[in-house]
Fold these 2 entries.
Entry 1:
Amino acid sequence: MEKTSLEQALDQLDQAVAAVRLGVQDLVHGQGAAEAAGAAAHAVSGGAIDPFVFRFAIFVLAIFVGYYVVWSVTPALHTPLMAVTNAISSVIVVGALLAVGIAASGLATGFGFVALMLVSVNIFGGFLVTQRMLAMYKKKEK
Amino acid sequence: MEKTSLEQALDQLDQAVAAVRLGVQDLVHGQGAAEAAGAAAHAVSGGAIDPFVFRFAIFVLAIFVGYYVVWSVTPALHTPLMAVTNAISSVIVVGALLAVGIAASGLATGFGFVALMLVSVNIFGGFLVTQRMLAMYKKKEK
Amino acid sequence: MNANFASFLYLVSGILFILALRGLSHPTTSRQGNIYGMIGMAIAIATTLALATPSFGGFGLIVLGLVIGGSVGAVVARRIAMTAMPQLVAAFHSLVGFAAVMVAAAAMYAPESFGIGSAGAIHGQALVEMSLGVAIGAITFTGSVIAFLKLDGRMSGKPIMLPARHLINIALGAALVALIVTLVLTQSHFVFWLIVLLSLALGVLLIIPIGGADMPVVVSMLNSYSGWAAAALGFTLGNLALIITGALVGSSGAILSYIMCKGMNRSFISVILGGFGGETAAVGAGDGVERTVKQGSADDAAYLMMNAQKVIIVPGYGMAVAQAQHALREMADKLKANGVEVKYAIHPVAGRMPGHMNVLLAEANVPYDEVFELEDINSEFAQADVAYVIGANDVTNPSARDDKSSPIYGMPILDVDKARTCLFVKRSLGSGYAGIDNTLFYKDGTMMLLGDAKKMTEEIVKAMDH
Amino acid sequence: MNANFASFLYLVSGILFILALRGLSHPTTSRQGNIYGMIGMAIAIATTLALATPSFGGFGLIVLGLVIGGSVGAVVARRIAMTAMPQLVAAFHSLVGFAAVMVAAAAMYAPESFGIGSAGAIHGQALVEMSLGVAIGAITFTGSVIAFLKLDGRMSGKPIMLPARHLINIALGAALVALIVTLVLTQSHFVFWLIVLLSLALGVLLIIPIGGADMPVVVSMLNSYSGWAAAALGFTLGNLALIITGALVGSSGAILSYIMCKGMNRSFISVILGGFGGETAAVGAGDGVERTVKQGSADDAAYLMMNAQKVIIVPGYGMAVAQAQHALREMADKLKANGVEVKYAIHPVAGRMPGHMNVLLAEANVPYDEVFELEDINSEFAQADVAYVIGANDVTNPSARDDKSSPIYGMPILDVDKARTCLFVKRSLGSGYAGIDNTLFYKDGTMMLLGDAKKMTEEIVKAMDH
Ligand SMILES: NC(=O)c1ccc[n+]([C@@H]2O[C@H](COP(=O)([O-])OP(=O)(O)OC[C@H]3O[C@@H](n4cnc5c(N)ncnc54)[C@H](OP(=O)(O)O)[C@@H]3O)[C@@H](O)[C@H]2O)c1
Ligand SMILES: NC(=O)c1ccc[n+]([C@@H]2O[C@H](COP(=O)([O-])OP(=O)(O)OC[C@H]3O[C@@H](n4cnc5c(N)ncnc54)[C@H](OP(=O)(O)O)[C@@H]3O)[C@@H](O)[C@H]2O)c1
């Protein structure tokens, strides 16, 4: 389906571009030409863009954020950092929830349930152990 | 149109959810139920998501990146920083190009042309003056 | 070109802009960074042309616009004096602001070309984004023009305080919001232009009450605004490069404003409300108390420095005014040839723009590893024989440290008074931009070298040759 | 729930995760950060439940899974000894890896529920993303299990070197790529499970040749992997929270690996290829040359330190093994009560995990502002009377500085030899993990306190009371 929608978008674009050319050459800036231009611009402005592109952009920017945010972590807290990244990577739980919650296959529900259990260990274990560690870091009493 | 497509998505979701409920209660995991679940999940997994959400996500992450990247600029280069941000903010030129290139209205083309000229001053002026400044920063000769 | 691929390319150009700013973390990587920025811009332009495939006539117009604007830009960039950077940046901002208004107007008149609906039926969301973009753009435009005029000295730096100005501004702001709502409801071109007009007026009114010397903060703030305007239009156009860039520029301006306010120990709000600072007041020591000042000649200064072991040079706005950086470098060379250790100390708000002094010193071929920030060098004044303060004033004023009643109390300063001798090059005993008398002039260890910074430094260089 | 609003909430939870990591930039903000992380997770879970609206039975299953897993996790988190952190983190990683495999399998068997097509007609793009996710997940699983076993001492730390292992790994990797292509073409469940199996095997084979003491790098690397696996599945599910988190975790693991390799002055590649380090070799000074060692008693040590002005404590892996941190704190308290200045110096790779020593000291209530990183304290050893090295070895070995032929040459070390006296608490003259003799033991200023770190420190505390 990806391919077809992509091809569709391409076709639309081609048609639209052709229409625009005609319209512009026409010199009469009538409604027809304007609409054709609109179709072209629809593609231009992202109406037809595959969500993958956006996700990829988000992924890349998040890597930049990760780079900076992790380098700013103080070395004294590197162990809690490992524990908390562990905990947050358990957000994969959303997949497990979908599988258990709405899967139309018994096997899938089973797999999801196993994933859910494992990942719950991580969520609770990860955040709580981080909490426990962080609670120990104290300043000198004055 | 935003509203209607949003409402459409909502309606689809409602229908799909109802279908899933039926399907799951049905206990017979036939093709029909599976398809209904698919429709629900289509909404779940983002097929129906407004690009605005993605753009917003990109915007927010870019602010994080900007925050970190600018704080890491050395104070000695704050003047070039102002010059180069000036230059890159001229990427608004894409709007001007659309207006000049494919606008179906004479006025719009005119506005676009003015924008294009102004912004070109900025693009060339900004990058070149930055270049000129940066070329002056030298290390001690040993 | 495929729309997906185009979006991907816009992302690449956004990433290249991030790398451009990232390069500025160090002088050695900065040139590479600037090249990334240029490539990013080229990609964005090429992608747009490939995507929109303009007609032959359209293409001609585009080339024409790029060539006219580009050559003006290139000439300006080559000719401009480094001391005029603050003005130049303000002028460039005004262009971006106006361009944002024009792009929004084009989108208003030819919504189809931008994919935001058709004439009279533009999407509500796009209208909101656009009107935000246009309002911020227009404010940026007139605000930057005022900032430019004040920085360039074509307009008095004195704050212009209208009566009830806060009330007027609030009323204008409210009217703006009402107009935006009306625009969304009516799609009227007339309302659109009203928004533009109102915003232009607001830009003027917001900036005129702010004193000339606060203009650097204003320029940064407007830089930030132009970023947000670009981002708003980026949402309208669905353009990733524009959204990312807008966010970057927006944060950059905001952070620079913050750094400057911190360097002055003032709140951002107090700067923006205006009324502070004006013409550099030449008050002299006319406050009744008779105080003695030790004045020196170029020969005295030359003798003192040639016999020193360590000299720290503190440049300020006066060095920029006098264009004294080259003479200063010559002087430092002489000293170094004579075995004296020379360093430069830069206060975060020395001059009229962040990093202003660094650029001027770099222009005069001072290696950047001899130039230090306040926190890195402040402890070294105690070991220095001479602090050579050239055209700097407020950033050395000890009342910021000692006098709780001083308006600049709390501002971090360079501890030049800790040096054995402190030489002050300026034209008079007048105060700096903050209009505050500098008690340092009357201290024992201080010697005033009254005169133009460039002339005085050149005379010292000559005296060193004897 | 509206799908747009749900996406927005996923974004919010991603942002909260960023803030969670950001909080770790300082101990005072870290607790708040961890709470942001918890809120982010709660939002992600609640959003998914609201979006998918499971049936009553499904909801029951979900609660059951959360309760079982959650209570196990909570109990483990409460009971685990701080010294066992490296193992715990490895174990947790293995769970995430396995969960990723299970989620991908569920998606394979019920693609409709995940919106990626229908059985036998799953989108090609989704299949690629999924198989990447499943392969990385499976490698993370078995790799982490091996790392856990080695770190926990249930498996020998000795590298297990199969003949032609590089060839085997390359062949397996190629097979994996071929299988992924086949999966996209055939959509066969059998191929899917083959991918899982192969990846599980690859995880084992990749990690067994790596020595026990390199496990911290491995754990970080696998942390990074689990992030990329999560991101891959995030693409499949179109879930912003998962994509952002994956990128964060991926970068975090990569950066930590980099920091550790830098701290050891080794290349990441050489660590991953394995074969380095094994059982802590108890070689002693048996290299032919007779060298004298000054041995001391607890009384000697107590006397020396009580009469010192400044003592710097250097903890290492041995302190963790002996659980000596509490005794150490007591000793420091005694010293401080006696007017001695006490500081702690932490090497970036002291112990068996980045930040390992800091956590243990924090557990023993040592204030974090008495604990310093290598670059901040290294110059102070020259002014210290005593360096009290407890269970550390390689990180103090001067041959890293002086001996070009040493395998650890170039690794930054703590300059304990610059202190007037250097006390070494360890059980023997054996070497540390790198298996290299420490020339410091035979130096004049060194006094060896042979014995278990905890017992020896307790004896010193007692001796101080006399
Ligand atoms: N850099 C920024 O980003 C920024 C931003 C906002 C505000 N500011 C403000 O700007 C000020 C900067 O401090 P500063 O110490 O650099 O400058 P300053 O305090 O304004 O003092 C400059 C001095 O230079 C002297 N001068 C002017 N022209 C001269 C010439 N041709 N030859 C010799 N001397 C000359 C003036 O004294 P005479 O008239 O006696 O010669 C004046 O006292 C601070 O108050 C700061 O808060 C800076
Ligand atoms: N932290 C990390 O992230 C990381 C990552 C990768 C690699 N590493 C490696 O790990 C090593 C860490 O250096 P390190 O100085 O902390 O440790 P080390 O060099 O491994 O030395 C630990 C010493 O503690 C002694 N010891 C063991 N148990 C003891 C006990 N119960 N009581 C007293 N002493 C005891 C041992 O000597 P005896 O047997 O004589 O008692 C041993 O020499 C470095 O080589 C580093 O490259 C660390």
Entry 2:
Amino acid sequence: MGQMGKSTSLNHNDMKKSKRREKHYWEEWVGRIYTSICVVLLLVVIVSIVFFVSSKGLATFFENGVSLKEFFTGRTWNPDESFGALPFITGSFAVTLLAALIAGPLGLCAALFMTEILPGRGKRILQPAVELLSGIPSVVYGFIGLSVIVPFIRDYIGGQGFGILAGCLVLSIMILPTITSIMADALASLPGGLRESSLALGATRWQTISRVVIPTVLPALLTGVVLGMARAFGEALAVQMVIGNAPHVPGSLTESAATLTSTITLSMGNTAMGSVHNNALWSMALVLLLMTFVFVILVRLLERRNRI
Amino acid sequence: MSQAFGTEHLSVFYGDFEAVKGISLEFPAQSVTALIGPSGCGKSTFLRSLNRMNDTISQARTTGHIWMNGSDLNDPATDVIKLRQQIGMVWQKPNPFFKSIYNNIAFGPRYRGMKKKKQLDEIVENSLRKAALWDEVKDRLNESALSLSGGQQQRLCIARALSVNPNILLLDEPASALDPVSTGKIEELISELKNELRIVIVTHNMQQAARVSDYTAYFYLGKMIERDKTDKIFTNPENKLTQDYISGRFG
Amino acid sequence: MMIKKAKRADKIATIVICFFAMLIVAILVGLLGFIIVRGLGHINWHFLTSAPQMIRGGGGIGPQLFNSVFLLILTLIITVPLGWGGGIYMAEYAKPGKITNVIRLVVEVLSSFPSIVIGLFGLLVLVNAFGLGFSLLAGAMALAVFNLPLMVRTTEQAFRAVPKEQKEAGYALGLSKWKIITSILLPVALPSLITGTILASGRIFGEAAALMFTAGMSSPPLDFTDWNPLSSRSPINPLRPAETLAVHIWKVNSEGLAPDAKEIAAGASAVLVILILCFNLGARWLGRVAYRKFTAAKRID
Amino acid sequence: MKKKLPFMLTILALMLTLAACGSNNDASGTGGSSEAGGETESKLSGSVLAVGSTAMQPLVEQVGQKFMADDKYKEVTVQVQGGGSGTGLTQVSEGQSDIGNSDVFGEEKLDADKAKELVDHQVAVVAMTAVVNPGVSVDDLTKEQLVDIFTGKVTNWKDLGGEDQKIVIVNRPASSGTRATFEKFALGESKLADLEGSIQEDSSGTVRKLVAETPGAIGYLALSYLDDSVKTVKYAGVEATVENVEKGEYPVWAYQHMYTKGEPSETVKAFLDYMLSPEVQESDVVELGYIPVSGMQVTRDAEGNVTQK
């Protein structure tokens, strides 16, 4: 039973940091540097994106003299003359809010189905289904919208088929996975005892859900909806194909409209870099950027209230 | 091998809450010292500061000295990693690595530069024998450590600590999550190991403290009330507080 | 009387919830069915391997398919080290406090950036300023930017999910933090890391908006025999422009002159969706297998 | 401070690399081949980067592939990118690409001084014609009628002799070159406002699909995109045929420009000459539905005044 060499006696200098660095010191240094590089690189990329988009976006107002008021409240968008981007801002908000109105409840039902009604089998059916929905690329969503949803609306609901309705239908399917998965996690993270105690009081399942389960995880559920809206607000290709792209505030849900992203997708390529029209498009990209910040901060506020 | 090892005015602060208040305690060579006291009295925090594990908790701050033959382990200049290689530690919940039994033991020595297979095999067998686990696992060394029972996993953790030949072994309630049979095996193990290395054990179980330890220290609200030979403490302790705790009047 | 009303409400609610849940499954089956059935007829070996035609019919998606896969590999080569490194920093090295929260907030913002903005940023910086020109590398870097936040978040969650005791055991054994991370925590976190990476690949594969301005909308004729990465005709030269499958679908459906443009787009969409399907199912299956291998013990938790 | 050191170090290193990359971009920016072998034509090598109008991309790409296949230019690689006329003109004027494809004159997109630097190479002519949904009975529209439609004065086909059907305009975005040409030469207007409820698509394929499927729809397409799913409409009695365009009777056409910044380098010049060679003009240009420049009996300058050749 030989000992693994005499155990080293613990003299004083042995413990001090010897000049010749130990192996583990270098290891630690490498680890710290490597991970720091990754995070610094990530931050530099984000900062440079924000810098580039805002420098070009703000040029419209400072160099080209387009007034902020006209840009945000003007209703006519006729490049080189008037740069009223209100139609696009309203279009983006309308499409996003309606999509959230559709996908929110739908997502909640799916999440409830997975966690409350049929936890075992339900999850095995719905979870892959929802994830596959998120896998379908936006290009394919666009073409399905163009070839299925628009004709359907045109024939059965009237109008041109294009417009806010088509846009929000396509978007609601696209953001459904985000909303459903976050809601399902929120419902699953609920302490089990809560449900049992409510059921023990003789409440029916729906009373338990509506009076106990949902109120306690409401902030997390709303977080899912807000993140879904963030995704909808930034979607470009799929929306551009079904929205119709008329730069006006539409009269009805089935009249050609436009969003910030659809206008950027449409015209960015056709405009020469540095021209007023191009800068105005970058200003719209800046609005998209700011909205992303707003959504994330909204989520932070919701998370703060969600202290279960 | 008789090096002095003990603390002098050791305090541990979580933010501004002082969990351990200026404790000086000496651990004689080849002895088992048991730390007992009601939960929340700071005995585990004190144990964890000995091999500076509290440093891994960001808001914890340790003041005072931990003397190990003349050098203060609490001195910032001390190389924490070299320090921890001298002191082994085992927790209440067995935490073997998600690796095979062999690799769990061989990981420490291999990290310290031991490359030859023959030597590693010898250390693994040696450590498992010391942890009284060799006969139960000698023919399935490559199986996942998670396939062992709770008691076996705990002994594996002890074997892993022994594989790097520490001078001191810290046990934080090693048997409180185990069945009586495994607890018995662990206690036998402790009394055998004590002639090789110094052991400090934190436990809730006073009978266990009486059975395995040479010295016992009673902790209460972050302070050390009394420290003496184990049989002295459990027959007629000096301090009334210790007497109340021993006789189970409270805590 | 009250109880009967409550019971009825409960029944109605259950029916409504089940109806909507099944509606979602129906939507998915409908969508996938529509895409795959419409496109399947057009898929054959010739279609999958031959080069696209400008005017004549019978064009294929060979180069585009190769570009998509090669671009995915390039993107992962960039994203995995950076994403895992960043995730490890957030999970292990970042001290909880103001800075870490700000970093996490900023990373989350990047994750919901519209991809068109990242594409334009790619054009300005990668294509023009860095002089990469329309190339696979520019496209891969743009996609990396688009995908890093997701990778960082999945990595951080994977590392946080590893039981805390493993790290404590490592410290007590006198290992350096980096050794603990790479040799003790990483193997345990690997299954969910791999699943996260594969799901991210699904997203990379389907991305088009970010690539139009970076990897470009055309690809030079590829000479599959020439494997030296420097010559401009070789498939694996990272500095050549490359139109991916998703971008090709966009281009064919908008500017396609060939008579069978519609069928090509349908076929390409079907191929794209089938591949992403394999990614998702593969990730799910691999995650289950790895998890079972790891917890081989009888431990049922 | 010790903990922060690695963090600071990485930021510093990163700044250096960014700066270094930034500075060398002008060196490798010009794609033009500088090392073109001078002795004989066949020794040309290097790469030609053409960026710009998505409408021109199929033509230039097809000719590029033929050019590369020709063993005289085996060493040269031609790369054609889309992105739209605006991107093309910007990239060429900033030296980021050798050729800027555009279906409008440079002056219309770039400001004067930048446009002057560009040398125009007109490689083909694209004619456009108004198209309507097959369900619309009208098959001839005068200039005034077209103006009334696209300015919103007339909103129902019955006012133009068709059935009682609401007119749905399928237009191009304001920034599109195709739209600028159509407005200038078919309507004699410029920069018309976008009408409420008009549908806008930048890609010709989608416009064709929408006009074919939307009852009462009207739009305009290049001849190369015409097929039997849409009905062509005569422009004031004149059929949009190649002869009418060449004779100058059918005014709605535009040059396809391939701009270079100053005189093109040798390889780029070789490609442009190849583009104008009869071998391309007679086959690819015609095959793709464009009209060869050589066949035109009239020419037109940026301001739009036509001169008999």
